[in-house]
Amino acid sequence: MSTTTTASTSTATGTSRPAAGPGPLLVRTREQLATALRAQDAGPAAPSGRRRAVVMTMGALHAGHLALVREARRVADAVVVTIFVNPLQFGAGEDLDRYPRDLEGDLALLSGDGLLGPGDVVLAPTPDVVYPGGDPAVRVSAGPVGEVLEGAARPGHLDGVLTVVLKLMHLTAPDVALFGRKDAQQLAAVRAMVRDLDVPVEVLAVDTQREDDGLARSSRNAYLAPDERVRARALPAALAAGAAAATAGADGPAVVAAARAVLDRALDPVADEVGYVALVDPTSFDPVDAAAAGPGLLLVAARVGGTRLIDNQELVLAGAVAGAATATAAGDGPA
């Protein structure tokens, strides 16, 4: 039987106030968070020790985020969900100001059956709480993975992501952090940061959640007009075509060409624009050799109307000999 839960609210003075009913605690400041984490640490522990999981979001939650929270609930004794639209990961002219924000709606979703409950925490800070000194002078560099694909299309984006992820890891002190596979390059960058900087946090990936029409769930899907939504379905269709080509034994260039052909047919050449179609190593994000064998990650990015969307698909290549690297950028479609 499901139980309706309600998060606590926060007053204008910044103090947290429990709501009338069981639910997660909403905190807005570092002091409130520290108090809430101490309460979590004092809770009953499993025989193997008490574990805390964190799920980092920018709000405007959907089923993809809730899948992360459910997995966090499964693997940990206590859960912290962060809701913070991070200005460092938005570039000039991007959608920082219009990015959807609905804290009340997010809290209602998080209080659903099998999600957050008493003892769990929702951290929804303002930028001055996360960055009390203003824009940080010291930031995390994503390194080579931050310079290709999303990093090339959105310079500094992954540096901004890693900076806030590391700060939130320090603030929430988790044992495990969960991220979605939809943002595959972000996931690879976070894993590299945790490995290279000896961050004592386990990183778990959760599969991409999709709409009924196959579109990967994203808060930005709300921007799409009905006709744009139809054209956006070309992204998962392109990935499916590439995966089918790989299953049929196609080499890297043919896999990329199969995916690109779907986008070229379905997208509006005036209103839309392909950002990239690329086949890379799933860990390093280096381009995959043309005739390489083994796992690969096929990624697509496109602007549909005014909305930029990304998606990806893991696949296995059947080739066996090295060849030229394969990836196509916007304007480099198949002949």
UniProtKB/TrEMBL annotation:
Pathway: Cofactor biosynthesis; (R)-pantothenate biosynthesis; (R)-pantothenate from (R)-pantoate and beta-alanine: step 1/1. The active site is at H65. GO terms for cellular component: cytosol. (R)-pantoate binds at Q89, Q186. It catalyses: (R)-pantoate + beta-alanine + ATP = (R)-pantothenate + AMP + diphosphate + H(+). Beta-alanine binds at Q89. One of its GO terms (molecular function) is pantoate-beta-alanine ligase activity. InterPro entries: Cyt_trans-like, Pantoate_ligase, Pantoate_ligase_C, Rossmann-like_a/b/a_fold. ATP binds at residues 58-65, 180-183, 217-220. Catalyzes the condensation of pantoate with beta-alanine in an ATP-dependent reaction via a pantoyl-adenylate intermediate. HAMAP family: PanC. NCBIfam families: cyt_tran_rel, panC. Belongs to the pantothenate synthetase family. Homodimer. This is Pantothenate synthetase. It comes from Cellulomonas marina.
